[in-house]
Amino acid sequence: MSSNKDDGGWKKFLWNSEKGELLGRTGASWLKIFLFYVVFYGFLAGVFVGTIQAMLLTLSDYKPTWQDRVAPPGLSHTPRSDKAEVSFNLNDMETYLPYTKALREFLAKYDENDQKDMMKFEDCGEEPAEYKNRGDLESDVGIRKACRFSRTLLGPCSGLDDTEFGFKQGKPCLIVKLNRIVNYRPRPPTSNESIPEEAQPKVQPNVIPLHCTSKKEEDVGKIGEIKYYGIGGGFPLQYYPYYGKLLHPQYLQPLVALQFNNLTLNTELRIECKVFGDNIDYSDKDRYQGRFEVKFHINSL
């Protein structure tokens, strides 16, 4: 009997049909609670939206707000594998096909036919020159022209004559670029103090020099000749600054092609490449900041 009364009391608490109460409250009481929370959360949402809108008013569509905290650019290369390893067999095209395919796809946007529009591109010379100033980021100039970069500058690594990029002959090419940073102006080195002696001859006005060498001392005599192709063998200043995707949609960053002509076969070789500049630093936490390492293993057996 008591169980039935308890059940009835529980049900009556949920809904009391005599008093019209739900969970012990009348409909008018629930309406007040509902309206309170609508107003309360509506106010919070308004504060949140207002805060976001106020913050957006301080941001520019073209200029990064906290660019002074951006790290120096990364140095990257194509082809690139997850383990930074270029390994193939001279006698098996399938082993180096992924590398040559990656190079062809990367260089496709540098085809001269895609750079003919005089409204989008301009000639900036084939010798290193000073920065190309196209106005402030937030000026009324609008879309900025991009400097042309001809694939022919990359010599035998252009893919125009040798579609295998030297891999078939055991003389592989790498295409190297500095990653884009909006409004960044790389500064050439003003002294040789922080530059290895073998790289010092590459220092010249208006270009960021690139130099590659063996990572291990025991591999010094196994690397052989490295050829550098591009403008000044580095990254010329006339291609900077970069104005961002909105203002510089056709931008082509300058490239440097490396061809390794005498790598010792059937041996694992580690090579480190670095760029040198007054505002280019290196980080132990980021192995691609201003430099990269690549491991070659060319099998001829």
From TrEMBL:
Main location: membrane
A Gene Ontology cellular-component term: sodium:potassium-exchanging ATPase complex
Compartments, as annotated in UniProt: Cell membrane; Membrane
Entry annotated with the keyword Ion transport: yes
Keywords, in A-Z order: Cell membrane, Disulfide bond, Glycoprotein, Ion transport, Membrane, Potassium, Potassium transport, Signal-anchor, Sodium, Sodium transport, Sodium/potassium transport, Transmembrane, Transmembrane helix, Transport
Gene Ontology biological process terms, A to Z: intracellular potassium ion homeostasis; intracellular sodium ion homeostasis; potassium ion import across plasma membrane; sodium ion export across plasma membrane
Superkingdom per UniProt: Eukaryota
Keyword Transmembrane in annotation: yes
GO molecular function: ATPase activator activity
InterPro entries to which the protein is assigned, alphabetical: Na/K_ATPase_sub_beta, Na/K_ATPase_sub_beta_sf
Transmembrane segments annotated in the record for this chain: 34-59
Mode of membrane association: Single-pass type II membrane protein
Quaternary structure note: The sodium/potassium-transporting ATPase is composed of a catalytic alpha subunit, an auxiliary non-catalytic beta subunit and an additional regulatory subunit.
Family listed: Belongs to the X(+)/potassium ATPases subunit beta family.
Function per UniProt: This is the non-catalytic component of the active enzyme, which catalyzes the hydrolysis of ATP coupled with the exchange of Na(+) and K(+) ions across the plasma membrane. The beta subunit regulates, through assembly of alpha/beta heterodimers, the number of sodium pumps transported to the plasma membrane.
Protein name (Swiss-Prot/TrEMBL): Sodium/potassium-transporting ATPase subunit beta
Lineage of producing organism: Eukaryota, Metazoa, Chordata, Craniata, Vertebrata
